[in-house]
Specification:
11 strands; Nucleoside Triphosphate Pyrophosphohydrolase; two-stranded antiparallel sheet; single chain; alpha+beta; globular
Amino acid sequence: MTEEILKIFDEDGNYKGMETRQKVHEKGYWHETFHCWLISVHNGDIYIYFQLRCEQKKDYPNLLDITAAGHLLSCETVEDGVREVNEEIGVALAFSDLISLGVIKERLYEKCLIDHELCHVFLYETKHSFEHFFLQKEEVSGIYRVRLDDFIELWFGQQTTIHSEGFKENPLGEKITDVKVIHKQSFVPHEDHYLKKVVENIQIKIAQKNI
């Protein structure tokens, strides 16, 4: 399998060259990623969607994460990143369907992983039911949604548990409806700075659209 090559940058986003993905994470080079957050409206409430990382993932298995996300390869533009939405959760979108939430820096550390990301973050309001998500089984094993306000309160300490609803796929690829109580440790440990900026920008876009 050909090793992925990523563009590398300084912290201010100035291009510095290219390196393998392995070396990027060993050395902690800044690199570009694509993040897409899905939201929806149900009974007047805003819900935010999370993917459940499959148990075979090397990093953060069985944890809830950004709806769809991935690295941008050296040959790709930001617009190419929309492929992640189709590949991971089976939702076919055009780049023009997305709302930009800006570029947000994030640092993640896991064992030998030093992940310094320049995250190109986008928002999409979905009308899809759970039946219309088709998962990349090597990456994703379920989709869950929670009330946006509940998630904010959970992440920043006003609640210790919240309710989620969604589905998991069994080994046969069948969708199994799932409702469960989750806590902060149920999620990939993103930086507070990153998530604070994401939810603030989502709230701004919601207000502008009068959702």
